[in-house]
């Protein structure tokens, strides 16, 4: 049950509706949690602040604790809001997520103007904590050590009409020495398959045609209820949901990745030919120090099996540079594996020492200059591979799910944007006389050009271009009509929301 936030003004009983803003840092799990936070706040009577306006009446930071710069970014933003809050009676600031779970009282000590601090296990408490802070005129700190309610039972305001996140588990049972997530999100908790499929069916009924299954380690799904093949079965079950056109998942762990999952991907038509497989390091010594439970040979073997059954699969990864004790030989091993893996893109990170992790206590912490130089070599290599792999796409015909937001040069190029089945970003033009697609519709186009981080399609004639209007496009029309936008028609029905599949930058 959600507490309502009712604010009154002694001098004016017709106070305007209060606004909120959720600022998100970190992974897809945080993005999904932020959709829950937005849903909770809207269920409590708040409305989302329009972009570009002044800070909202309620500003919520959903934080990440994986890297040190997340701390710095949070406290910098809180510092800027302190001065705003001095001139805005009734303004409230809340901090949640992994950093709140970790730092707890530290946040209130460093930023005493914060009204609410809540953790990863009690997202649903935010409205009540805000009301309690207002009523008592003092900051509220509530950090639970275990999950209070599975997040999917909470109201949600999705960022996208055509796409949705679906959590299949929360928490993690791994003990990677660099990672603080298990201590912040707890041991893995798995949802029952029927609950997951019911949520997906509800999303599809609302116009969604693409879902991404989320978990800290999706391919260990089912361990809690004793079925080690549960994830592959879940993927196959997704293939039976009418109207669901695209299914993705993130993130698996190479140590637990099994052939039955690869077979399910290859044999289920709506499972997309895209896989995010975190490498972290190509050095077996470093992988051992990281407690990653696999070695480079196993990792490359998984990629070979995926490409054997799914030849056009695009594989992405995570890599950490500069882990304690990493030698030049170790780093070269990473470069060798990256060269062999031919990733379509990579999220590359400089190792960040996180208090509370075993790696923070390891000897041979590397100098910043060494880490930076290796990072630059790695990204240069991966950028070259990205460009080469994208160049191989020229001449292929692909189906693109159109998104609302186009590229930065859209006004100049007159191109729209979307994602191919393998998740590559495609900027495309509509040939003269062609139908303009709505966000959520699908277009089939030839790839005519490529850059390192996107593909280009400029069809030369109508014969090279087709549009398939979709239920998601109809949902976008409805959402525009409901918000006084400029929809293009479509049928009536359930209300949607603004678009844009949440994405992460290529490197951090």
From TrEMBL:
Alphabetical UniProt keywords: 4Fe-4S, Cytoplasm, Iron, Iron-sulfur, Metal-binding, S-adenosyl-L-methionine, Transferase, tRNA processing
Domain Radical SAM core: 158-389
EC number(s) on file: 2.8.4.3
Superkingdom of origin: Bacteria
Names of the cofactor(s): [4Fe-4S] cluster
Region (Disordered): 471-508
Binding site for [4Fe-4S] cluster 1: 27, 64, 98
Record note on cofactor: Binds 2 [4Fe-4S] clusters. One cluster is coordinated with 3 cysteines and an exchangeable S-adenosyl-L-methionine.
Residues in MTTase N-terminal domain copies: 18-135
Reaction(s) the record says it catalyses: N(6)-dimethylallyladenosine(37) in tRNA + (sulfur carrier)-SH + AH2 + 2 S-adenosyl-L-methionine = 2-methylsulfanyl-N(6)-dimethylallyladenosine(37) in tRNA + (sulfur carrier)-H + 5'-deoxyadenosine + L-methionine + A + S-adenosyl-L-homocysteine + 2 H(+)
Domain TRAM: 391-461
Annotated residues for binding of [4Fe-4S] cluster 2: 172, 176, 179
Pfam families: Radical_SAM, UPF0004
Main location: cytoplasm
GO cellular component, one term: cytosol
Subcellular location: Cytoplasm
Compositional bias per record (Basic and acidic residues), positions renumbered to this chain: 471-480
GO-annotated molecular function: 4 iron, 4 sulfur cluster binding; metal ion binding; tRNA-2-methylthio-N(6)-dimethylallyladenosine(37) synthase activity
UniProt record similarity statement: Belongs to the methylthiotransferase family. MiaB subfamily.
PANTHER family: CDK5 REGULATORY SUBUNIT-ASSOCIATED PROTEIN 1, MITOCHONDRIAL TRNA METHYLTHIOTRANSFERASE CDK5RAP1
Protein name (Swiss-Prot/TrEMBL): tRNA-2-methylthio-N(6)-dimethylallyladenosine synthase
Upper taxonomic lineage: Bacteria, Bacillati, Actinomycetota, Actinomycetes, Micrococcales
